[in-house]
Amino acid sequence: xxxxxxxxxxxxxxxxxxxxxxxxxxxxxxxxxxxxxxxxxxxxxxxxxxxxxxxxxxxxxxxxxxxxxxxxxxxxxxxxxxxxxxxxxxxxxxxxxxxxxxxxxxxxxxxxxxxxxxxxxxxxxxxxxxxxxxxxxxxxxxxxxxxxxxxxxxxxxxxxxxxxxxxxxxxxxxxxxxxxxxxxxxxxxxxxxxxxx
Length: 197
Hints:
Blueprint: E1 2-9, H1 19-32, E2 35-43, H2 52-62, E3 68-71, H3 74-77, H4 82-94, E4 98-101, H5 114-145, H6 164-171, H7 176-183, H8 187-196
Parallel strand pairs: 1-2, 1-3, 3-4
Helix pairs in contact: 4-5, 7-8
């Protein structure tokens, strides 16, 4: 079986590198009698757009350059969230590529539970999409009840200050600007409040 190994570290500044992951993944290949077709590595902060090793691995999977993708754990494959992770696994499956996690033994399409794993991943992806849709719908409904499409209130928030102090300070001879400064609002806001009384 031709195996592609994918290793990933998310930060370089903590002295992390992929050598430990690669060693463990290579050892498993030797133990299983698999041929390592290619190794892919990424060193980044988790932004998949910059994960050139990951992108190349996906291209090679579609070109059927390997039969199995071996990775350390799901969080080393991607941190893009449940839906994205499941979609990547489904994509590999569509290309005829099996997948296996070194540390999460249940994430394995090479064994007798292959069909169960593939079905489970597909079901989880659908359920996560439904949950995301429900949360978005609930947010829109909440915004609609608030009278807006976005959920943000229309207009400006009302200035909060003690309006009874405006007359007292004005009687002492303070200007609108001085009163506003003392009360934490603009002079024109203070003047409008005074004239509205």
